[in-house]
Amino acid sequence: MTEPSGGRLGDMALGKDYAGQDCNLARALELVGERWTLLVIRDALYGVRRFGDFQAHLDIPRAVLTERLQHLVAAGVLEKRRYQDSPPRHEYVLTDIGEALWPVVFTLGEWAKQHLPRAQTHRIYRHTVCGTELDAMATCPTCGYAVPPRDVEMTPGRDTARADHVSQALNRPRRLLQPVTD
Amino acid sequence: MTEPSGGRLGDMALGKDYAGQDCNLARALELVGERWTLLVIRDALYGVRRFGDFQAHLDIPRAVLTERLQHLVAAGVLEKRRYQDSPPRHEYVLTDIGEALWPVVFTLGEWAKQHLPRAQTHRIYRHTVCGTELDAMATCPTCGYAVPPRDVEMTPGRDTARADHVSQALNRPRRLLQPVTD
């Protein structure tokens, strides 16, 4: 799975693996550290499942999205499921392994919200069981445990400037993992 | 801060920013999503502070490491401090903003340990106050709160194969953020 070296400074160390780094974090980054990959996983947590929906929301070239989805399917983070036979159409659904990335996506977003100047107070995440806003560790302060994504309701903090249909769907309160396109 | 596009598939979308992505996670990835950057932050959490120590442990070209450190200093994640005047020498120390990335680094490493086939049961992290092993959310099950890195003791699960002096220092139990080189 190594790629040819490009001319960017960031690629001087060749490819996308970290062969010399004897560390779980390095193994994780070989998979989710590629450009766009964590945003694909974020979208899957938001309920995006179909190629066209990922593309509309991420606004990236088809070839990049295709490669990222294939890589995540091969790693067992996404499952490719046929939802229509004629013509054949597939969707990409998070596996349990993929859903387990929720704390990573959440804590990184919260870190940006708290500490980066260009970040926005944007979406609000609440525990559906009790309505309490999650703390910075994706834990419910009322119930005292880490909340899995299917028990999280997301409310947009303000309207997005984006006009694509996925952005518009995400402008309304919704439960995580609930499919954006039915 | 945009870079010229290279030939890699991953770079087809040009540069390292996610200008169209109206999202805190995208802002975070513009900073910590660059190749090697989260491993630099991991090392800083382990107590690595000096250029030569980062280089020995990460084994990356000087130009890449220089660029990553400069970017993190400019963003307020690392502080550059002079520790010797003649000749002038500097070290790179995590700021509060940088230390706040600990849950991200930890949850991503734990995810890999639990879910990726090539990951190893490697380092063990314990709360120094009570000796309890942290759970997957970097929380102490005994004390019931998220443990900051300066209250975490790291124990190697097995010896690393790496021979550099930083790897050897990390083969002994140590508190996070405690400088590797004194």
How is this fold's topology laid out?
The structure is a homodimer of 182-residue chains.
Chain A: H1 24-32, H2 37-45, H3 51-58, H4 62-74, E1 78-84, E2 89-94, H5 96-99, H6 102-115, E3 124-127, E4 152-155, H7 165-169, E5 174-175
Antiparallel strand pairs in A: 1-2, 3-4, 4-5
Structural overview:
Chain A has two domains: 16-100, Arc Repressor Mutant, subunit A (Orthogonal Bundle); 101-176, no CATH class. Chain A is built from seven helices and five strands; from the N terminus they run ααααββααββαβ. With 182 residues, chain A is α+β, with helices and mostly antiparallel strands. In chain A, β1 (78-84) and β2 (89-94) form a beta hairpin. The longest helix of chain A has 14 residues, at 102-115. The two termini of chain A are 34 Å apart. Chain A is globular, with a radius of gyration of 17 Å. At the A-B interface, α1, α2, α4 and α6 of A face α1, α2, α4 and α6 of B.
The main sheet of chain A orders its strands as 3-4-5
Q: Strand fraction band of chain A?
A: 5-15%
Q: How many strand segments of chain A?
A: 5
What would CATH call the homologous superfamily of the largest domain in chain A?
A: Winged helix-like DNA-binding domain superfamily/Winged helix DNA-binding domain
| Residue windows where pLDDT falls under 50 for at least 5 positions of chain A | 1-14
Radius of gyration of chain A from CA coordinates: 17 Å
The CATH level-2 architecture of the largest domain in chain A is identified as: Orthogonal Bundle
The N- to C-terminal Cα distance of chain A equals: 34 Å
Which CATH class of the largest domain in chain A?
Mainly Alpha
